[in-house]
Amino acid sequence: MTEITSIEFEKEVLQSGKVVLDFYSSECPPCEALAPKFESLAKLYGHDVKFLKIFRQKNRELADQLEVKSSPTLLFYDNGKEVGERLTGGIKRSDIIKNLNKLLPDSKVASISDKIKPIVSEYDVMILGAGPGGLTAGLYLCQAKINTVLIDIALPGGHVATTHEVSNYPGFIEPQAGYMLSHNMSEQTKLCGTAYKVAVDVTNVDLDKREVFLDEFETVKAKKIIIATGTSPNLMGIPGEKELKGKGISYCATCDAKYYGDKEVLVIGGGNSAVEESDFISKFASKITIVHQFDALTANKTAIEKLMANPKISTLLEHEPRSFKRDGDKIITEVEDLKTKKIKTLISDGVFIFIGMKPNIQLFKNKLTLDHWGYIKTDEDMRTSLPDVFAVGDVISKKYRQITTAVADGTIAAISIAKELN
Questions:
Q1: Which residue among 1, 5, 98, 146 is the one 20 to 30 A from 169 at the CA level?
Q2: pTM, whole model, 2 decimals?
Q3: Does the annotation mark 255 as catalytic?
Q4: Residue 84 three-state SS
């Protein structure tokens, strides 16, 4: 693998055959997560595909010319032409392989696949999920000198990483950017010595054997498991939502609000997330309409008072969306007046949906005792119904789901496990 500069771009990329180019930056957690995957795949594919890296911060003009907007970004070239899919952010090994395989004939792909040897990694504790609960558990365990690995299908931080501002985390007088709070948590745990396997594909979880299969080639085994898989946004399940997801419908204000400068958006929901994220969206959008099914918002009083004082935000209560469709650059939302049962049409540039969350338990939901809502039941030490399997954070059954309660769960589970292992 070779590092190049913009001066060498034409010769090394455009005048070469098959090339994969990594635009990376310093102080970039997703770049750090990508590096070992990129290096290991270079050993497999390097005889047939040229693997190159370029430092984005010192080659900004080329990055701008190629419209590379984030780090890391992988670009794939075949005889001077960009091909395949651009990969950015938390890049998975399987997605890189998919693009590499498209560059090569089937016979060569088969030959390389035969060289991929299964490996087994063993740890004392495996943590599934790198949100605040999982990160805190990892911190306490590594400080107790317990060999621990954190596994996540995304990058560390959980929902905190995509929260624009956290104003109630103890120890900080001023509100903290969510991505920085989660970054600091992650760095603290990583520097302590916890191993990280992030932005991976988890294809199988066997809680009885305490084994997890990653990226279709690595089996991770542990004496104990902590489930910290968190939650995912609820979907409305109405016509047009699936088709327009990421194409005008979003579930993350921090990710997408910046694309709606001086535009009009709808926000669906009336709880804390909907109200607080609407305030953030108003930093960009010119007009926001909150559509809520009840006759009053259900967020906390402080958030509602702040929202009511924002001239950009209005509310449409006792209404519920029935469908979404696109008309040119606009999103057409049909909403039902729950009093009169009449259908209204709302026109906006985009829609943000914040209607609650669901637990991420798909890979093991039939193995554990769950509550009525599908969350994992635990005892006071965070033990689940299976021996040596613990659970923490938003995925467990409890009254309040906050960063601080997730951190507390992770602390309890780690101390309980440390006592058992020692």
A1: 146
A2: 0.81
A3: yes
A4: strand
